[in-house]
């Protein structure tokens, strides 16, 4: 079993897609860039890591890294005690059992995430800006101080409690990126409820699926949202979802716009109700391992999984990685443009920045609205010091030309971060040379919904160290990376490739899949025993620098959004005229990966193909959302199969990628002529 799984994985073409985008061009380059700060590799334990001031053997980042791996107990417990505020100290740093997928951090400890993100900053930083809300309407930003945010959190916390929400209850949040959304997440944390944010780009059906899986009694939404100047009827979508979710007892509606929307008997006008509530909301103390939130993400099979994160471990991990991956100093303005519906929004819009007492941006719009200069005009107007975005937006923006960037003053920028997909070479160069004027470090960060926070990143406080373009490079402290081959054997040395795994627990790791621990265990801890299996492939270069080669399973990464091929196939398979389908990814200039669907129709159907094409697209939009729409739907009389009946997805990927000469031997297929049919049809569609 193991060797087959890994063998398939390592030869998976998704891994090759990314390799062909950037790795081959990188491998023969020897140049690199230096971090723009100082000249030596020494860390200052007095400013960067004062917790280790008394340990004279820690002089460099490498020393610190080594120490974090050799003595994780001491490393993490000192950080936990100094960076978080506890109402009761913990007794052990970490307990772990890989064979059961059970992990516990800082057990015995008691704390509250909202206290750590707000209350403890109020005395010194109460009048400083916590949130900058960059509204969709250009030039209409709003500032929210820590005091103001604290009041909102208190009011919403009281509103939730008074409406019947208790500690441990799940609250589904389907909101645009707004101070109300952040305050609702923190209000949940304050009263011990578990938030489950659903990206507002997912359809009503997708929302209903997530509400039902989580058995959420409470939904928080908005009357409408506005994105790129277009109104989206959010409340209508929630009404449709709630009609399929009998567990829902109440819907809180925030008025983002003036528009009246029909209010039913479950609905509460949140904007109005908040006026009545007191801003002082009692704190419900949490144990370290109590769940802070859950967030659905796609896997290679089945329905989306509700990844759960703990209170103490997650909070500490986002706090520490935020500070050190971006070299963030309190007072700086951090601009992560990701939506709160994704893990990036949880960790680096909310929990990382606010637990550090930082100033964080809420970007409600799109990079192209009103024109491709939006990011840079915003950087100039708000004087942002950091920007953190997805490579897909860079690839899109660089096509619009440099003048949209150069028009605006970007001298406030210090670090340029990215996440979600490999940063291809062209985008790296453009980010570094044009956006950053060769002055700012590029911080390529690798991590996942499941890892909670950044695991691989160049570490800019590593003064004077090199940055290699196109790879996240270095494991963060406490992250023990290893590569494994198709036999499940560790691959050692440099310039080697394998399945990327993490050998040691870290505080930010997911604790389970909601109500399905078995799936958690199988997905992450059984392919290779005794390690966390990421599902990504990686190349380890000289000096132990890591480059990600892409997913090894059937998970797609479209514009940095994670989608399961099986989810899209399931929707199309439900159509009465469809016999079977296969969805694969192919390299896409802007999206990184595009979606390609092969569809086999049943005999004797009456509907015309172009109508079917439209019906399938409508179904995908309805069941999942516009983000899962395929670039191409190709109708075929059959799919290439082995004699034993297995669909040859490898061949489907090659055809979708125009790599007709890499199909290999097709003579062993049960119907080799299907391949010719598919190739010809594909060429017609181009
Ligand atoms: O394949 C990797 C890719 O995104 C996947 C995780 O997706 P998600 O859970 O949605 O989280 C995205 C934001 C943290 C990974 O398995 N990925 C993420 N960062 C990078 C990346 N691929 C290459 N380079 C990265 N820096």
TrEMBL record:
Lineage: superkingdom: Eukaryota
Gene3D superfamilies: 3.30.300.30, N-terminal domain of ligase-like
All residue ranges annotated as the AMP-binding enzyme C-terminal domain in the record: 567-646
Single GO molecular function: ATP binding
Domain Acetyl-coenzyme A synthetase N-terminal: start-end pairs: 62-117
Pfam families noted in UniProt: ACAS_N (PF16177), AMP-binding (PF00501), AMP-binding_C (PF13193)
AMP-dependent synthetase/ligase domain sequence ranges: 119-511
Family annotation (SUPFAM superfamilies): Acetyl-CoA synthetase-like
Thylakoid among keywords: no
Reaction catalyzed: acetate + ATP + CoA = acetyl-CoA + AMP + diphosphate
Keyword check for Signal: no
EC number: 6.2.1.1
GO biological process: acetyl-CoA biosynthetic process from acetate
Catalytic class of the enzyme: ligase
Entry keywords, A to Z: ATP-binding, Ligase, Nucleotide-binding
InterPro entries according to UniProt: Ac_CoA_lig (IPR011904), ACAS_N (IPR032387), AMP-bd_C (IPR025110), AMP-bd_C_sf (IPR045851), AMP-binding_CS (IPR020845), AMP-dep_synth/lig_dom (IPR000873), ANL_N_sf (IPR042099)
Cellular component terms per the entry's GO annotation: mitochondrion
Classification via PROSITE patterns: AMP_BINDING
Family the entry assigns: Belongs to the ATP-dependent AMP-binding enzyme family.
Name assigned to this protein: Acetyl-coenzyme A synthetase
Source organism per UniProt: Lymnaea stagnalis (Great pond snail)
């Amino acid at each position: 079993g193991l060797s087959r799984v890994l063998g398939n994985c390592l030869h998976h073409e998704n891994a090759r897609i990314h390799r062909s985008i950037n790795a081959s061009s990188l491998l023969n380059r020897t140049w690199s860039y230096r971090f723009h700060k100082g000249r030596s590799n020494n860390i200052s334990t007095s400013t960067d890591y004062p917790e280790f001031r008394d340990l004279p053997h820690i002089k460099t980042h490498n020393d610190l890294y080594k120490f974090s791996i050799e003595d994780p107990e001491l490393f993490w417990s000192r950080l936990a005690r100094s960076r978080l505020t506890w109402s009761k100290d913990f007794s052990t740093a970490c307990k772990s059992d890989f064979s059961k997928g059970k992990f516990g951090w800082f057990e015995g400890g008691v704390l509250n995430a909202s206290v750590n993100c707000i209350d403890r900053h109020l005395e010194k930083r109460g009048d400083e800006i916590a949130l900058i809300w960059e509204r969709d309407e250009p030039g209409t930003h709003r500032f929210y101080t820590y005091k103001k945010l604290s009041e909102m959190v208190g009011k919403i916390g009281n509103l939730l409690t008074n409406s019947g929400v208790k500690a441990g209850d799940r609250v589904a949040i389907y909101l645009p990126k707004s101070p109300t959304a952040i305050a609702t997440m923190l209000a949940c944390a304050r009263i011990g409820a578990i938030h489950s944010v659903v990206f507002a780009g997912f359809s009503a059906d997708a929302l209903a699926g997530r509400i039902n899986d989580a058995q959420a009694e409470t939904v928080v939404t908005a009357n409408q949202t506005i994105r790129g100047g277009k109104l989206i009827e959010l409340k209508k979508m929630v009404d449709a979802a709630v009609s399929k979710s009998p567990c829902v007892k109440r819907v809180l509606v925030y008025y983002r716009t003036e528009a009246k929307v029909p209010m039913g008997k479950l609905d509460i006008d949140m904007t109005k109700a908040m006026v009545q509530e007191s801003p002082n909301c009692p704190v419900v103390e949490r144990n370290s391992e109590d769940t802070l939130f859950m967030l659905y993400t796609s896997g290679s099979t089945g329905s989306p999984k509700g990844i759960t994160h703990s209170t103490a471990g997650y909070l500490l991990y986002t706090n520490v990685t935020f500070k050190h991956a971006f070299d963030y100093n309190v007072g700086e303005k951090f601009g992560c443009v990701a939506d709160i519906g994704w893990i990036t929004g949880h960790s680096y819009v909310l929990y990382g920045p606010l637990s550090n007492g930082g100033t964080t941006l809420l970007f409600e719009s799109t990079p192209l609205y009103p024109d491709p200069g939006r990011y840079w005009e915003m950087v100039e107007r708000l004087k942002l010091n950091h920007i953190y975005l997805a490579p897909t937006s860079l690839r899109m923006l660089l096509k619009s030309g440099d003048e949209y960037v150069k028009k605006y003053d970007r001298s406030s920028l210090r670090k340029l971060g990215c996440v979600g997909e490999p940063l291809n070479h062209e985008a790296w160069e453009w980010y570094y040379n044009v956006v950053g004027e060769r002055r700012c470090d590029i911080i390529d960060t690798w991590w996942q919904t499941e890892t909670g926070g950044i695991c691989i990143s160049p570490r800019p406080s590593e003064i004077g160290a090199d940055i290699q373009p196109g790879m996240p490079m270095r494991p963060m402290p406490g992250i023990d990376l290893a590569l494994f081959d198709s036999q499940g054997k560790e691959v050692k040395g440099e310039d080697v490739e394998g399945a990327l795994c993490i050998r040691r627990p870290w505080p930010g790791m997911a604790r389970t899949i909601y109500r399905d621990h078995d799936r958690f265990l199988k997905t992450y801890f059984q392919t290779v025993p005794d390690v966390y299996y990421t599902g990504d492939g990686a190349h380890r270069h000289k000096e132990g620098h890591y480059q990600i080669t892409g997913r090894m399973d059937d998970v797609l990464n479209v514009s940095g959004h994670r989608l399961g091929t099986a989810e899209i196939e399931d929707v199309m398979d439900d159509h009465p005229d469809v016999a079977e389908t296969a969805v694969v990814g192919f390299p896409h200039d802007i999206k990184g990966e595009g979606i390609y669907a092969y569809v086999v129709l049943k005999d004797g159907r009456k509907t015309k193909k172009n109508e079917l094409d439209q019906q399938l697209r409508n179904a995908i939009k309805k069941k999942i959302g516009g983000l899962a729409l395929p670039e191409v739907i190709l109708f075929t009389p059959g799919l290439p199969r082995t004699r034993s009946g297995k669909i040859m997805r490898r061949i489907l990927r090659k055809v979708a990628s125009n790599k007709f000469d890499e199909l290999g031997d097709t003579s062993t297929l049960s119907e080799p002529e299907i391949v010719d049919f598919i190739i010809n049809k594909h060429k017609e569609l181009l």
